[in-house]
Amino acid sequence: MRRLFRGSGLALLLALAGCGGGGSASAPAAAPPAPAIVSFTAVPASLPAAGGAVTLGWQAGNATRYSLTVQPAAGVTGLPSGAITATTAQAALPANSGTGAQSYRFTLTASGAAGTMAATATATVTVAASGSAPHPLASVNWPGSVIYFLMPDRFDNGDPSNDNGGPGDSEPAQPQNPMGWFGGDFQGVIDQIGAAYFSQLGATAIWMTPAYVQGPAQSGPSTNNPDNWQSFPYHGYAPWDFTRVDPHFGSTATLQALVNAAHAQGIAVILGQIVNDAGIGYPAYQQEVNQIASGQLILDNSAPAVQTFQFHHDDPVTGQCEPYLGAYNPTWDCPLDSLPDFNSDNTAVQALLDQATAGWLGTYGLDGMRLDAAMYVPNSFWSQYFATLHAHGLTPLAYGEIFSGAPDFVGSYTQPSVGFSSAQNYPLYFAITQSGLVPGQPSYYGYGNLAAVDYAVQQNLRDDAQPDLMINFIDNQDMPRFTSLLANNGVAASDVLARWQIAEALSFTLPGIPMIYYGDEAGMTGTWDPYQAVANGTPADNIRRPMTLWTTAQRQAAGVQGYYAWLQALAAVHRQQAALQTGGYVPLFVPAASDPDVYVYERGSGTQGVLVAINATNSAVTLAQLSGQGAGIPVAGAGAGATTNLLGNGASPLSLTACGSGVCLNGSLPAWSAWVLASP
Q: Under a CB-based contact definition with an 8 Å cutoff, are residues 309 and 344 in contact?
C-alpha cells in the first residue's frame, strides 16, 4: 500500500498500488487498471457524552460501490449495510455512560470494475465521557456585554512547554520574528481569568481567534527581511485541521479548562470559526490541483463537477473560478488572498464545515462564534449552516466579518434569510474614523464631521435585524490601531488620548455590543499587520505585538493608565445602564457642515435616559450658541436639574433647565471631550 495523502482530520486519501501483471517475453501484459482512490470523512470528530449524529462523506476515483463498517458496532444505528452507491451516509452513536471517552473507528472500502484494486480509508469519532459535556452559560445579556478580543499567541504565555507546538504542528517559536509564534496560549488566558484581569477591566465576554491546527510557515517578505524570516500562522487563520486544537495554544483539556474558568466568573467565550477557506498548501486542495493537472479530474462547471470538487479552481479556458452554482459571483466563487477556497455549493463540503463547527460549539460549550470572511461565502451556504446548528440545539451568538462600510450590505447578513445574529459594525467604524476625528480622511457618505456617525447609526437601525447586537469597535487585528491612525495623520501626541476617548465613547454608547481589542487598555500602537510591517522595514509598527502591560504600576510607568481607566469607566456604565443596551436612539443635535462639531444624543428616554454629549473641536462650545438652540437643546420627558457624570471624569458641565413648556440641555462643553450623563 502506498500512502498518497494523509488528510488533516477532515479527510484521509489512500491509494493502493497494484502488482504488475505477467506475460510472455514477446507479448507484454496489458497495464492493470488504475487502483481506486478515495477521500473519507466522519464529522464531527468528537461528540458530547450524549452521543449523536455523524455524517460520513467520501469522494472517489475508479470506484463505483462502497461498504462501511464500524468498530465497536454495539449501539451504532443507521449505518447502511452491504454495497452502497451513494457517497454520503449517516450514523448515530450511542450515549457514553462510562468515565472514559469512547472511540468509534469507521472503515470505508471503495471498489471498482473487475481487476481494480480496492481502497480503504478510516476515520475515528470520539464520544466524551459521561458528565463531561459542558454547556454554554445559562443566559447571556448580549446587549449588556463588553467583549474583549484577543489572539491567544499574542496575549500571555502561561505554558512555555508548548511554545514549539507538538504533534500536528511543531513549528518552532520565534518571538524575535514579528511574523512568528510568540508562545501565548490558552493557559495564559486561564491565568488572567484567575487574576480577574478581564472582570476588573469590565469585560464580560472573551473572543479568541480560531484554534484549529495550523499549516506550516510560508515565505516572508522579499524586502527588508535580511534574516529571511518566514511567516507563521500564529493568528489561527490558516487551518489544516478543522476539528483539533493546535498544540501551540494547548490541548483539548486546556481549552475546556479555559471555558470552565470563564464560565465560573460569568464570562462568555466566543471562538472564531472559518468556512471560506483553508490554509495555504492544505493537502486536500493540493490533491485536487494535482488531479486536475494529471487529467484524473476534469474541471468544468457542470452539476457533477459541483459535487466532485471541494474547492474552486481557476479555469484557464473560461477565465473564471469553477465550479459554481447559479450566476457567477467572483466574490463568492474565487479565492481570497490565494487561499484554498472551499466550494460551498458542494454538499460534502457543507457537511464537513457544518459538523466541524457543531463539534467546537458542542464539545466545549462555547457561547458565541465569529465567522471569518463571511461576505465571501454564498448566502445559500449560511442558511443551511445555521439550520444545521439549530438542529443540533446550538444557538450561539453568531456574528460575521462583513468588511464593508455600507450599512445596507452589512445589515443584509443579519436578516433571517441568511441567519447571522449580527456583524462586526464596520459601518460605524468607518463613520467614526471618517468623522473628522482623524484628520485627512475621506467623507463618509458625504459627511465629514460627527454627522457621519449619526448617519451610520440611523442606517444601521433601519438595516440591521438586531442593531443592539452589532459588534462596535475602533480597533481589531486587521485595522491600524486608532492611536496610530491619529498619530500617523498629524495629531500631536498630547492630543491623541482625547480623540481616542471620544471614539471609544461612541463605540460604547451607540447601539451595539462594545468590543475592546487586546492592548487598547494599554495604549498600544501599530499600523500594519506583521507581514506588511516587516516588508515596510518597520517590524515594530505592527498591530499584533504581544501584550505586556498588565498592572496599574506598569501602565503608569509607561504613561498609558488613562487608556485603561477610560475603558474601565465606559465598560462599567455600559453594563449598568439599560438605556445603553437596548434603549432607543434619539439624536438631539447633529452638526451641519457649518456648525461646530458637536454631537448630542440620548439613549432611552425621560428620567431613565442617558445623555451623551461630544465636542470634537479645539474650543469650548456653549450649547445655547449652537444654531437653532437659543434656549438650549430640548430633551423630551426629562426633568429639570443637574445631570450626573456617569464616567467620573469630572463634574458634569451640563444641566437641564426649563425652556418654554419643556426642558433643555444647557452648559458649555470643553474642547475635545465626551460626556455620558444621567438625567436628574
A: no
User: Is pLDDT of 10 > 50?
Assistant: no
Confirm if 212 and 165 have CB atoms less than 8 A apart.
no
| Residue 526 per-residue DSSP state | -
Nearest to 41 by CA among 69, 67, 11, 66: 11
Split at pLDDT 50, 70, 90, the class of 99 is low
What would the mean pLDDT of 608-621 be, rounded to a whole number? 97
Place of cell 469597535: 473
3-state secondary structure (DSSP) of residue 33: coil
Q: How far is CA 371 from CA 28, 203, 423, 591, in A?
A: 58, 21, 9, 36
Grid cell for residue 183: 508562545
pLDDT category, 649, cuts 50, 70, 90? confident
pLDDT over 70 for what percent of the chain? 93
Per-residue pLDDT band for 32 (boundaries 50, 70, 90) equals low
CA angle 644, 649, 652 (to 5 degrees): 35
Helices then strands, counting H and E runs in the chain, come out as 17, 31
Count Cβ neighbours within 10 Å for each residue of 120-136 and write b for 16 or more, e otherwise. Answer: bbebebbbbbbeebeeb
Edge-to-edge strand order for the sheet containing 65-71? 46-47, 119-127, 102-111, 65-71
175 preceded by a cis bond (ω within 30 of 0): no
Q: At what angle do helices 347-364 and 379-391 cross, to 10 degrees?
A: 40
Q: Give the chain's length.
A: 680
The set of cell numbers assigned to 93 is 452513536
- The 3-state DSSP class for residue 462 equals helix
Segment 659-679 mean pLDDT: 96
Query: Which cell is 34 given?
Result: 488504475
428 neighbors 457 (Cβ within 8 angstroms):
yes
The rounded distance, in Å, linking the Cα atoms of 258 and 409 is 35
Identify any residues that bridge with 41 across adjacent strands, giving them in sequence order.
Answer: 57
pLDDT at 391 exceeding the cut of 50? yes
What DSSP element (H or E) covers 313?
Answer: strand 313-314
What was the pLDDT predicted at 660?
86
Residue 67 corresponds to which cell in the numbers above? Answer: 461498504
Asked if residue 25 has pLDDT above 70, the reply is no
Give the mean model confidence (pLDDT) for residues 526-548. 98
E-strand ranges in 305-436 read 313-314, 321-322, 368-371, 397-400, 422-423
Helix 347-364 vs helix 252-264: crossing angle, to nearest 10 = 60
Q: What is the pLDDT of residues 493-518, one digit of tens each?
A: 999 999 999 999 999 999 999 999 99
pLDDT of 52 above 70: yes
Strand partners, 89: 56
- Quick one: pLDDT at residue 31? 55
What structural domains and CATH numbers belong to the chain? 2-127 (2.60.40), 145-276+344-576 (3.20.20.80), 284-333 (no CATH), 586-678 (2.60.40.1180)
Sign of CA dihedral 270, 275, 280, 283: positive
d(CA 273, CA 262): 19
Which grid cell is 27?
A: 507479448
Strands (E), 475-524: 513-517
State the first-to-last Cα distance of the chain, in angstroms, to the nearest integer.
Answer: 81
3 state DSSP class of 283: helix
The yes-or-no verdict on residue 556 having pLDDT over 80 is yes
Q: Quick one: average pLDDT of 380-404?
A: 96
Dist. CA 311–CA 345, nearest whole Å: 10
CA–CA dist 68, 81 (Å, integer): 7
